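[step 3/7] inverse_fold.run input=structure_tokens len=1340
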């Protein structure tokens, strides 16, 4: 494989000259020419057999070298013997003006091949290094063509093949059978990942695939899904029956065409959706990424193609600025360098040469090292190895410009003629120097955005392990990562990073057990060293990361449950009714045959007649029902997305809008859903006094005095404040109490300004002005840091090692600390801590550990901090008071550490961090033992989370609509209680029964017994107690909980939220709606019958996973009470009309068959059958989707109208059989009277019967309409006119002469009146005697 120039993050890259011009000494044995046939074999054997004995970090002493010659003599001799070359290019020409061509560096005029060759474009491994003539011939490529110049022909990419003991990769690296030799990956086992080279195990490809189907599975799967609906299967059987001559009635297309049309529309929609999914997948899979390619030093002199040098823009610009006068003295530098290198023996080579190549996301493999910059989406799960900030690169620019240019010049003119004996640049660049440069280049930190992974939009800090951060990039191939099996837990990771002596050790399977080797260095890896797939690099640093999990094994792929296809309750109800209709068809067919008698005579077999009747009555099960309902759903979705009262609403699942009108349980998240997730520091309590609102000005005064912020003296500006520095003399005249309070305020403000994970950022806005802001994973922390700025102490700088606080007024630094350890917040620990060392004055270097104060600060929930802080008598009371006010509380404490205490803790903590099993528990045990006890209690903060707009009236309206509301939150009990009360979720005075920290089964049963006797109370339960009930009292708990008007569950995990939703569905068989805004709500949303996502501050993941997306919680009321109610009532009426339309024509067919002495002959054939179901009735019936019984204001004013829908009365067995009776009545009258008035058979009867049938359906639609819409008028009138116009084209079915007579008209009018007037009269009487609710509220 080709390679390129080394990549130094801490300084401009070296050129190959740095490597190839070094004074390497080669054993004379190695230069002994061998036959070409043996060269490859010997190289492969040596490459695979040796283990990097000359690795860069090896400290072993080498034995005395055998007789050798300097490779420099070979190289420079070739140059000095040149005949026509210019020496060292322009540099040499300026010194001696020699324009003769030189001979080649190495010759091979006689065609004999040695073991080593100068690489060429063809990588001929058999070209000789030395010729039989002493190397005086011209250098040629493997094709024999003379090369003009190294520079012009891409010398940077030409390499010399070194002996195998210096090679960094095995001889079979490019073995075409490598794929077959790889072991299959075992997903249940941990993995060893070698950084850079190909792996010994085959891992899955890094492909993103959201497609449901393949080219082979599309038709089978989609057809199976379609025919799993009963009526589709029914019509398929009917259509297939027409292939049997004895069962054929009319044209085959009459039965096949409607089914084919329905299937075509459905399959086309599925195909389009899947093609779109594949298109989006291809876009993601084809995204280009920069990958570092690591090449052997021995393979890096021969290159196929040029590689880009990994330089910063600063370095490139600096190289161009170097003066020409520097170039003229370069040759003397080279000569001095060569003389210095003389006799130093074999130079230590880097472990690899690094080049950049571009790969598509789908081609990335485990072990590849990615180069990521700001805005890049991480394509796979990676471990961060190095982070290089642009600022640190710029700081190095000045001192590195000259070496960078020297390398380029030396490289470009390597082959040119020389007037005298030159020397190369000193090639002895030690690994230690490189490591030192890398270490100083960056602190190894970067920020990522995880909004597409966990729904949080705040940045997360990620760190490179010091072991890899301090390595030069060429040495990364000596690293090996030990990672656990693929896991879906996005917040956990345990692994180990090992630095082995050489690259061969990493690549050798035998070295996998070398952990005990003294040369192996190890460092722990945690979640802080990772970036999972679909996260985005947010900071400006260049990040190098190695891939450890790809494709289906990434965290995001494992965490994403396949979204289930949701089917509305109305669909199931209609499917049940369809089965009844099918049974009715079979019953009717058997009865008609039985009335004639079960004859077995030839040509009149009874079972054949039954089958023919089934075909004739197939219209009873209307195939157009699915089409009409799907069109109706599309209309409802269109209304929702274009409602100006719900801006930004998106319908992602268009199959369930009717379910919005059937909701009985609403499960809601709290933070970001009911509340705005906008935090504001409202209150702080320091033990004896509490500050809020205007009193914060007094806090600012204390801070100004305590940190001497008002001083502008130059001497004062050099001194920095520490916790024990003297309190300002400006307050000397104050009372002792006031001084104590001032001291406490100063201490708690300092603690809050230091103990956090907030990073200050500055970005340019649209106007080009710099805007300062804060980024953190918790909005609470941002609110607190903003508050410390408002009282005078601003967070000015934060990196991995330091925090600087400055005066908000003057901008003068007042506090600077060195971060020694940080303990991030976890949902289990509910606290975060930090150990810092204070600077006593501004100085460039960090103070030694024993020279200044070391403090441990910690803040967390009162439930955990109460046992950590020293004994006090006010903490519990104050936290309870703040929680009752709806404030989120944090307790702050501190502890001073001596040098001995810190060193002892640090050693134990580091030891625990290296343990493979139980690492987190071991580390936490050390922290608890050494730090978390007897902390000085500094104060309590109260942060307010504001309620969303119109949350109170919205919850009240939903409760009046008969919806039982549960609030599921991860927040603590007191905060959840307060939000429930303040949001009117719980009425004032309503009894709240609290169950918390329940661990015993007997207590659990007692609580359930109490709740059964108080079904009007509110249940408040925490996650621990909820887990107890879900495990041991599942049925008992849910049977009581569903009776209560409100349930509030606190400290809920995402899994518990989803489990509660499933439990309610299973037990009650009612429709459940879940609403949330964060990634932690996705599982709950997907488990619900209807999932609603809010586009909030926590990201868009909940919105993208939901069936319906809205922007505000109060939009939910309109979505349910207005759109949900209308969608359900319209679809119910539409479904019943379509059933009526098919049933009435089947009754007419029955009457006709009876008149024909039970013969199964068709009444309406071919176009009459198809036209009736499409052209002549479709639009008027479909226009019912525009009907509404009340306007929006009345629906909101009387939410009780929604409540009656939950019983399903709009489409029930009662209403179904009413419509069946109406269909039988009208069908019998229409066909019976037509036969009586015009004769049983003939075109006259057919004309009267069919015309009345169409007219009856149009007028029935008009009778059922509650609120007229212009579209309804146009569709009804237009359809009737269309039928009248089409009558002249129906001469094959009708007697057209009879149609033009008065007799036809009075027969049609009489039959239609007898059919419709009683039906309409019955409806009016029923409305008068028992008016529906909507007519009551209208005052009619």
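[step 3/7] decode complete -> sequence:
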């Amino acid at each position: 494989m080709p390679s390129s120039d080394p990549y130094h993050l801490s300084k401009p890259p070296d050129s190959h000259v740095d490597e190839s011009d070094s004074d390497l000494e080669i054993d004379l044995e190695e230069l002994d020419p061998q036959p070409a046939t043996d060269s490859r074999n010997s190289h492969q054997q040596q490459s695979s057999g040796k283990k990097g004995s000359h690795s860069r970090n090896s400290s072993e002493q080498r034995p005395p070298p055998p007789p050798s010659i300097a490779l420099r003599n070979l190289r420079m001799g070739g140059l000095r013997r040149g005949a026509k070359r210019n020496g060292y290019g322009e540099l040499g020409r300026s010194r001696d003006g020699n324009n003769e061509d030189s001979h080649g560096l190495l010759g091979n005029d006689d065609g004999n091949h040695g073991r080593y060759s100068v690489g060429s474009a063809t990588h001929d491994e058999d070209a000789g290094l030395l010729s039989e003539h002493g190397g005086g011939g011209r250098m040629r490529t493997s094709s024999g063509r003379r090369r003009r110049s190294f520079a012009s022909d891409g010398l940077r990419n030409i390499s010399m093949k070194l002996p195998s003991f210096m090679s960094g990769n095995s001889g079979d690296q490019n073995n075409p059978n490598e794929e077959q030799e790889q072991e299959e990956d075992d997903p249940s086992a941990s993995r060893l990942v070698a950084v850079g080279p190909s792996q010994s195990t085959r891992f899955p490809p890094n492909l993103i695939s959201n497609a449901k189907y393949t080219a082979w599975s599309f038709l089978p799967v989609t057809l199976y899904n379609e025919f799993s609906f009963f009526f589709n299967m029914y019509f398929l059987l009917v259509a297939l029956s027409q292939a049997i001559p004895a069962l054929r009635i009319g044209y085959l297309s009459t039965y096949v065409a409607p089914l084919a049309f329905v299937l075509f529309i459905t399959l086309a929609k599925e195909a389009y959706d899947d093609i779109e999914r594949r298109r989006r997948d291809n876009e993601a899979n084809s995204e280009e990424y920069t990958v570092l390619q690591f090449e052997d030093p021995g393979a890096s002199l021969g290159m196929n193609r040029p590689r880009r040098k990994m330089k910063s823009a600063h370095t490139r610009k600096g190289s161009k600025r170097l003066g020409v006068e520097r170039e003229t003295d370069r040759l003397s530098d080279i000569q001095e360098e060569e003389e210095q290198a003389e006799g130093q023996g074999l130079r230590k080579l880097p472990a690899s040469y690094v080049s950049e190549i571009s790969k598509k996301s789908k081609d990335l493999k485990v072990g590849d090292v990615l180069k990521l910059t700001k805005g890049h989406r991480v394509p796979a799960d990676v471990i961060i190895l190095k982070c290089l900030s642009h600022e640190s690169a710029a700081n190095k620019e000045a001192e590195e410009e000259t070496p960078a240019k020297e390398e380029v010049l030396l490289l470009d003119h390597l082959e040119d003629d020389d007037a005298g004996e030159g020397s190369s640049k000193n090639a002895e660049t030690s690994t230690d120097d490189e490591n030192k440069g890398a270490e100083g280049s960056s602190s190894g930190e970067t920020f990522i955005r995880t909004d597409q992974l966990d729904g949080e939009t705040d940045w997360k800090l990620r760190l490179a392990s010091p072991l890899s951060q301090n390595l030069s990039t060429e040495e990364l191939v000596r690293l090996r990562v030990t990672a656990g099996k693929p896991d879906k837990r996005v917040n956990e990771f345990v692994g180990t990073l090992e630095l082995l002596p050489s690259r061969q050790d990493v690549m050798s399977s035998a070295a996998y057990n070398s952990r005990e080797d003294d040369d192996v260095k190890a460092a722990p890896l945690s979640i802080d060293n990772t970036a999972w797939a679909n996260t985005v690099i947010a900071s400006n640093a260049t990040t190098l990361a190695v891939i450890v999990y790809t494709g289906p094994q990434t965290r995001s792929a494992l965490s994403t449950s396949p979204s289930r296809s949701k089917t509305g309750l109305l669909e199931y109800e209609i499917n049940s009714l369809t089965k009844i209709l099918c049974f009715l068809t079979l019953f009717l067919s058997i009865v008609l045959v039985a009335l004639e008698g079960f004859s077995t005579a030839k040509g009149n077999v009874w079972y054949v007649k039954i089958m023919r009747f089934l075909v004739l009555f197939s219209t009873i099960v209307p195939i157009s029902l699915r089409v009409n309902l799907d069109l109706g759903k599309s209309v409802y979705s269109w209304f929702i997305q274009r409602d100006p009262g719900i801006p930004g609403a998106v319908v992602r699942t268009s199959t369930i809008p009717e379910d919005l009108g059937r909701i009985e349980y609403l499960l809601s998240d709290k933070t970001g859903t009911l509340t705005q997730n906008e935090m504001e520091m409202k209150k702080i309590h320091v033990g004896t006094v509490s500050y809020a609102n205007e009193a914060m000005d007094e806090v600012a005064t204390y801070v100004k005095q305590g940190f001497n912020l008002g001083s502008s003296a130059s001497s004062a500006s050099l001194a920095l404040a520490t916790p024990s520095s003297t309190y300002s003399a400006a307050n000397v005249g104050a009372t002792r109490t006031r001084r104590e309070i001032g001291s406490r305020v100063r201490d708690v403000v300092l603690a809050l300004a230091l103990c956090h994970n907030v990073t200050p950022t500055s970005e340019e806005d649209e106007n080009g002005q710099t805007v300062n802001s804060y980024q953190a994973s918790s909005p609470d922390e941002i609110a607190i840091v903003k508050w410390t700025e408002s009282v005078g102490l601003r967070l000015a700088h934060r990196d991995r090692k330091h925090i600087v606080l400055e005066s908000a007024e003057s901008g003068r630094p007042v506090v600077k600390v060195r971060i020694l350890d940080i303990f991030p917040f976890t949902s289990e620990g509910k606290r975060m801590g930090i150990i810092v060392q204070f600077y006593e004055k501004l100085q460039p270097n960090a103070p030694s550990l024993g020279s200044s104060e070391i403090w441990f600060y910690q803040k967390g929930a009162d439930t955990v901090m109460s046992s950590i802080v020293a004994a006090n008598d006010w903490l519990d009371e104050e936290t309870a008071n703040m929680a009752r006010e709806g404030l989120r509380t944090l307790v702050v404490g501190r502890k001073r550490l001596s040098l001995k205490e810190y060193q002892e803790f640090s050693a134990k903590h580091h030891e625990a961090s290296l343990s493979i099993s139980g690492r987190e528990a071991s580390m936490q045990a050390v922290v608890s033992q050494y730090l978390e006890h007897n902390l000085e209690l500094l104060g309590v903060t109260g942060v307010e989370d504001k309620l969303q707009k119109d949350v109170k009236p919205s919850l009240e309206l939903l409760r009046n609509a008969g919806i039982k509301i549960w609030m599921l939150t991860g927040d603590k009990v007191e905060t959840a209680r307060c939000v429930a009360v303040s949001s009117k979720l719980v009425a004032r005075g309503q009894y709240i029964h609290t169950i918390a920290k329940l661990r015993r089964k007997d207590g659990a049963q007692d609580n359930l017994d109490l709740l059964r006797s108080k079904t009007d109370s509110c249940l408040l339960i925490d996650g621990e107690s909820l887990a107890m009930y879900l495990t041991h009292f599942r049925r008992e708990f849910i049977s009581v909980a569903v009776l209560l008007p409100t349930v509030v569950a606190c400290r809920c995990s995402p899994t518990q939220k989803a489990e509660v939703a499933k439990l309610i569905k299973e037990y009650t068989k009612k429709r459940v709606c879940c609403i949330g805004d964060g990634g932690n709500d996705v599982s709950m949303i997907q488990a619900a019958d209807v999932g609603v996502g809010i586009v909030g501050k926590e990201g868009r993941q909940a919105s993208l996973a939901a069936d319906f997306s809205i922007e505000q919680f109060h939009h939910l009321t309109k979505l349910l009470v207005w759109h949900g109610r209308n969608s359900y009532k319209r679809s119910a009426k539409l479904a019943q009309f379509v059933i009526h339309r098919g049933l009435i024509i089947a009754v007419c067919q029955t009457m006709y068959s009876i008149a024909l002495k039970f013969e199964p002959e068709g009444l309406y054939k071919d176009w009459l059958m198809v036209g009736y179901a499409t052209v002549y009735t479709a639009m008027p019936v479909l226009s019912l989707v525009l009907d509404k019984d009340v306007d929006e204001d009345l629906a909101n004013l009387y939410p009780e109208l929604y409540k009656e829908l939950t019983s399903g009365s709009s489409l029930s067995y009662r209403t179904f059989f009413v419509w069946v009776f109406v269909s039988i009545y009208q069908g019998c009258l229409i066909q019976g009277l037509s036969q009586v008035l015009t004769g049983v058979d003939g075109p006259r009867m057919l004309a009267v019967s069919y015309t009345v049938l169409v007219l009856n359906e149009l007028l029935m639609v008009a009778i059922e309409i509650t609120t007229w819409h212009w579209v309804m008028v146009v569709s009804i009138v237009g359809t009737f006119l269309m039928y009248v116009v089409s009558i002249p084209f129906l001469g094959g079915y009708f007697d057209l002469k009879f149609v033009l007579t008065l007799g036809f008209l009075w027969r049609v009018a009489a039959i239609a009146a007898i059919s419709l007037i009683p039906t309409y009269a019955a409806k009016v009487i029923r409305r008068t005697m028992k008016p529906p609710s909507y007519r009551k509220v209208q005052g009619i």
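[step 4/7] annotate
Residues 1115-1155 form the longest helix (41 residues).
The mean pLDDT is 75.
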